[in-house]
Amino acid sequence: MDTYEDAGLGLLGDPTRRAIFELLARRPSSVGELARQLPISRPAVSQHLRVLRDGGLVVSRAEGTRRVYRLNPDGVTALRAYLDRIWDQALTAFQKAAEATPVDPEQEDR
Amino acid sequence: MSSAATIPPLTATVTVAVPVEHAFRVFTDSFGSWWPSEYHIGQADMAAAVLEPRAGGRWYEQGVDGSECDWGRVLAWEPPRRLLVTWQINGRWQYDPDPAHASEIEVCFTADGPGQTVVELEHRLLDRLVDGQALRDGITGGGGWSSLLELFAKAAVDQG
What we know:
Number of domains of chain A: 1
Radius of gyration of chain B: 16 Å
Order of helices and strands of chain B: EHHEEEEEEHHH
Order of helices and strands of chain A: HHHHEEH
Oligomer: heterodimer
Largest sheet of chain B: 7 strands, antiparallel
Strand order of the largest sheet of chain A: 1-2
Strand content of chain A: 5-15%
Number of domains of chain B: 1
CATH architecture of chain B: 2-Layer Sandwich
């Protein structure tokens, strides 16, 4: 089904969007709160949020006078995106470990 | 909407410059040596992650306080080519013993010449995780995946 396309994964290829995604994973935040934690302007934050929202990773809701962004709670896409990063990191770590350990017991210098 | 199999599997691939037997051995026997230690579910910091080398074996973490938390079970143990395990961590970041809520991770090791191995990982049946009642409750209560992601993110940040 194309409801859950891979777009979500591609969206996190951008480091700034990934940083925003991870900040929102920790805490729902407004544009201003995000901008304070990032080296980019509020309009730039807004632009990234729009892309993330269009991609289904993030939803927003008005709370009083401010608009609060959070990861999409029905966010299968968000979950996939996060698990995808875990596997990416895990396999990279595995690769290092596999290539750093002696290949054959008899080849070890002991 | 709870139609089955709507969530596509995740895939990841890495090529390692070691023979296939070695790749399988490091992946399984030495699982705890390379698994990023920030990804764990216990209250205590993780001391070790263990993958028992047999079909039906446990896949679990040990905390520094001696506690153990299951992650899943080994479904297929076929050295050095294939490993199939379940991932039964629900939206509350807890082990869900119900096999109906178990997602699966298949890892295939394919020799690409004598000294190189392609490792392909697929994490599938994600629908089962999402269909888990605990997760549904979590979503309704405002927790759910957000809590899980918060834990992941916190861990990732703490590490950095």
